[in-house]
């Protein structure tokens, strides 16, 4: 058989074999179904009610937290969730107590500000245990919500934290206030992205220099859109109620 004909025959055989192989390929090998049992973090809650949770991470400084708290008081915002790091809580116990005494919800933001996914479960348990102990000693709050440092996690990390009794809280709307992009940029980002059931990420650390100016605009703007403020736990309860009704 001439070389040209051999090449054509080989090519035809290869194409037929490839086609038959695709027909016999298992459907789940092409597109795996998502695992419903895989541990998950909470970004937002599915609800028709105009409810949002304002959340503030604090891991450094004492210049920004107090103005943020004053704004919330002046604007009569009584529901918000603060995620506190252990070392910050120890260094600034009076501010941590003020957050508790104002009735705001307190969550855990870890101890060392390092990505949990880079460390084994034993390290994660130790770090979360240290911050949990510090928050409990200062505020008498046993935390059950956690926002991991840098928002870093993977399924293993979530599974480890769930086994400690924690619900991992992320965010759906990120203010990017830590980048200090400008007061209007921070406020507009939140106001244009917020949706019912949203968890909104902000910071009350000293690195977020513009949040005291942006926060009043965010509060007023969300209220003008008909939103009410709740804690993260209250938002999660809405999802539970909806599930039970269904």
From TrEMBL:
Keywords carried by this UniProt record: Signal
Residues annotated as domain NodB homology: 50-230
GO cellular component, one term: membrane
GO annotation, biological process: carbohydrate metabolic process
Leader peptide range in chain numbering: 1-29
One function term, GO molecular function aspect: hydrolase activity, acting on carbon-nitrogen (but not peptide) bonds
NCBIfam families: spore_ybaN_pdaB (TIGR02764)
Entries under PANTHER family matching the protein: GLYCOSYL TRANSFERASE-RELATED, POLYSACCHARIDE DEACETYLASE PDAB-RELATED
Name of the featured protein: Polysaccharide deacetylase
Organism: Alicyclobacillus ferrooxydans
Organism placement in taxonomy: Bacteria, Bacillati, Bacillota, Bacilli, Bacillales
């Amino acid at each position: 058989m001439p070389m040209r004909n051999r090449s054509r025959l080989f090519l035809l055989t290869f194409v037929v074999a490839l086609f038959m192989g695709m027909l016999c390929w298992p459907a789940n090998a092409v597109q795996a179904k998502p695992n419903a049992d895989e541990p998950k973090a909470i970004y937002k809650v599915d609800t028709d009610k105009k409810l949002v949770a304002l959340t503030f991470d604090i891991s450094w400084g004492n210049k920004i937290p107090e103005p943020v708290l004053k704004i919330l008081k002046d604007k009569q915002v009584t529901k918000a969730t603060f995620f506190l790091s252990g070392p910050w809580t120890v260094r600034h116990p009076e501010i941590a107590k003020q957050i508790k005494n104002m009735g705001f919800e307190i969550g855990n933001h870890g101890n060392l500000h390092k990505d949990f996914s880079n460390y084994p479960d034993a390290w994660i348990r130790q770090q979360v245990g240290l911050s949990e102990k510090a928050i409990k000693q200062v505020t008498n709050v046993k935390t059950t919500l956690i926002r991991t440092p840098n928002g870093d996690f993977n399924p293993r990390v979530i599974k480890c934290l769930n086994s400690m009794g924690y619900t991992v809280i992320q965010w759906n709307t990120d203010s990017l206030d830590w980048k200090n992009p400008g007061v209007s940029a921070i406020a507009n980002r939140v106001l244009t992205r917020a949706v019912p059931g949203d968890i909104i990420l902000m910071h009350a650390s000293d690195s977020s220099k513009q949040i005291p100016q942006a926060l009043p605009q965010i509060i007023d703007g969300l209220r003008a859109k008909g939103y009410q403020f709740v804690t993260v736990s209250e938002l999660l309860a809405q999802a539970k109620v909806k599930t039970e009704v269904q």
